[in-house]
Design goal:
By secondary structure, the protein is α+β, with helices and mostly antiparallel strands. It has one domain. The chain has two helices and three strands; from the N terminus they run H-E-H-E-E. The chain is globular, with a radius of gyration of 11 Å.
């Protein structure tokens, strides 16, 4: 999966842009054990933290 290659271990990832919810959920699931922090950013909601393992 390209998202895993871009993410590498331990990075913070910010998802942006218009996409179906199922796609964002699939990406979040794939990256859950790979990255420390995943954030969704939109002009409407601002930053929404999906998960943050950087404080563990």
């Amino acid at each position: 999966m390209l998202a895993k290659e871009i993410a590498r271990d331990g990075n913070k990832i910010v998802l942006t842009g218009a996409a179906p919810v199922w796609l964002y959920l699939k990406i979040a699931h794939a990256l859950h054990e790979k990255v420390k922090k995943l954030v969704y950013r939109s002009p409407v909601t601002g930053d929404v933290v999906i998960f943050d393992h950087s404080t563990d």
